[in-house]
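Could you please review the protein record set out just below?
***
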Amino acid sequence: MKLKIIFTSIVVLTFISVFLCFPKQHTRFPENLIGTWTTSEQKYANRFFELSQVTVAYGIGKKKTNVYYISNAEKDVQDNTVLYTIEYHNSGGIQYTRSFYYDATNGGVIKFKNQKHIPWTKNKDTRIG
């Protein structure tokens, strides 16, 4: 009886350790999403949105950039468009959520869920290191 309890305890602790040590990985972005995105909307002149597999950055003007760390990303396919929802946080741990639609046709366009009327296009010469 003691041996059975010890064995069961070891198995349970092993499963718990595996789940704690290997957290769920977020959705990986396709390579055509990785890079810097800008819009011709005058309101966002000198602004950009930059996406990598691990960070999201916003160019906020005057050569300033806010960088955040992605903690989770989800993908929901809707016809020819994909809705991505990313959860990210700053270095202080404050959590944010942003959703955007991605349409791969015509070179790709991003439209933020809260601003569907503003298209963002990828800069052709950007490389994230």
In short: The CA atoms of residues 6 and 53 lie 42 Å apart. The longest helix spans residues 2-21. The domain at 24-122 is CATH 2.40.128 (Lipocalin). The beta strands are 35-38, 48-51, 55-61, 64-78, 81-89, 95-103, 109-112, 121-122.
